[in-house]
């Protein structure tokens, strides 16, 4: 579970992103699920995991929802122009559980794991895209472009490290300790529930609103809309990074590039200020110790405080 839902096999998902990023950027179609699973098998083969028994138990689904406009227009079922949200927000990773694991990983539990999976996959994709741009900008003399690029990389690298090291690894170690100390299934189930609740809370994935796929499926595989304000802010930052990575089309137009860089920089400063203020507001909650670590990473050498022009409350918190 950790290797797949929590992206423990990083090399596998880097290869998968290389094969499917263009597909996930677009709205889903009726063939998206088939194409995604084919790419998953190719990625597993590329990193020498095709013979792993676990690979055969995992599969992807990219739910397709027929738009209301098409339904009212009595369009043909063969019309593949009917699309919904992009793949990043709808992708579902499934696992074929055997008894008695199905008692531990109920559909609603897997839905929460998929919330975590979608966030980690999106951050990994954005982080990879930003690092890939290093070759493009390493010799440029455009200081503003390099500066913004470095800021975005710094933010994504530290956010990814916070999630993988401070949240997932530390909580997974505690879960394994609890598992090794008990033979009681109910205690095991309680330890797993605590683990899942902790990683969701510390990843800002606790507040959700259901959106079910076509046919009213209520099996627990439905995609969730996260309304946590910190999560919404992080998603806005990811969108900003994606826009920056696609800015190469303006490379030959210096005036257009300057215009977009100015807009991206202003947007970045605004979002970072909002993010930090939100995290400061959560400092008195149970996850405050973890948020202090994230803030310390982001505010290394007081860089973020200066950029966002924050109040004394953040500085006081980080010194405590």
UniProtKB/TrEMBL annotation:
GO BP terms, alphabetized: cytoplasmic microtubule organization; meiotic cell cycle; microtubule nucleation; mitotic cell cycle; spindle assembly
Cellular component, GO annotation: gamma-tubulin complex; microtubule; spindle pole
Species for this entry: Papilio xuthus (Asian swallowtail butterfly)
Stated family: Belongs to the TUBGCP family.
MF GO annotations: gamma-tubulin binding; microtubule minus-end binding
Primary localisation category: cytoplasm
Name assigned to this protein: Gamma-tubulin complex component
N-terminal signal peptide: none
Domain Gamma tubulin complex component C-terminal: 1-303
Annotated compartments: Cytoplasm, Cytoskeleton, Microtubule organizing center
Annotated Pfam families: GCP_C_terminal
Lineage of the organism: Eukaryota, Metazoa, Ecdysozoa, Arthropoda, Hexapoda
Keyword hit for NAD: no
Keyword flag S-adenosyl-L-methionine: no
Keywords: Cytoplasm, Cytoskeleton, Microtubule
């Amino acid at each position: 579970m950790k290797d797949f839902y929590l992206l423990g096999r990083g090399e596998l998902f880097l290869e998968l992103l290389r094969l499917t990023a263009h597909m996930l950027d677009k709205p889903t179609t009726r063939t998206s699920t088939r194409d995604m699973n084919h790419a998953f098998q190719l990625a597993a083969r590329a990193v020498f995991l095709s013979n792993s028994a676990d690979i055969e138990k995992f599969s992807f689904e990219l739910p397709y929802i027929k738009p209301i406009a098409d339904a009212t227009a009595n369009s043909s079922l063969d019309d593949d122009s009917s699309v919904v949200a992009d793949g990043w927000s709808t992708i579902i990773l499934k696992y074929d559980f055997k008894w008695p694991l199905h008692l531990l990983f109920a559909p609603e539990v897997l839905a929460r794991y998929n919330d975590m999976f979608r966030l980690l996959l999106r951050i990994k994709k954005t982080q990879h895209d930003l690092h890939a741009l290093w070759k493009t900008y390493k010799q440029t003399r455009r200081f503003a472009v390099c500066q913004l690029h470095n800021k975005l990389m710094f933010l994504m690298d530290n956010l990814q490290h916070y999630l993988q090291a401070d949240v997932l690894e530390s909580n997974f170690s505690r879960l394994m300790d609890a598992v090794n100390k008990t033979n009681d299934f109910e205690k095991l189930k309680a330890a797993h529930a605590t683990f899942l609740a902790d990683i969701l809370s510390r990843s800002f994935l606790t507040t959700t609103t259901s959106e079910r796929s076509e046919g009213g499926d209520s099996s627990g595989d439905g995609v969730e809309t996260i309304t946590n304000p910190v999560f919404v802010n992080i998603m806005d930052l990811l969108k900003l990074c994606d826009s920056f990575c696609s800015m190469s089309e303006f490379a030959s137009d210096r005036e257009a590039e300057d215009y977009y860089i100015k807009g991206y920089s202003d947007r970045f400063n605004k979002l970072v200020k909002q993010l930090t203020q939100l995290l400061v507001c959560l400092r008195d909650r149970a996850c405050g110790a973890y948020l202090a670590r994230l803030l310390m990473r982001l505010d290394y050498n007081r860089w973020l405080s200066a950029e966002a022009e924050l109040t004394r409350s953040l500085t006081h918190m980080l010194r405590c």
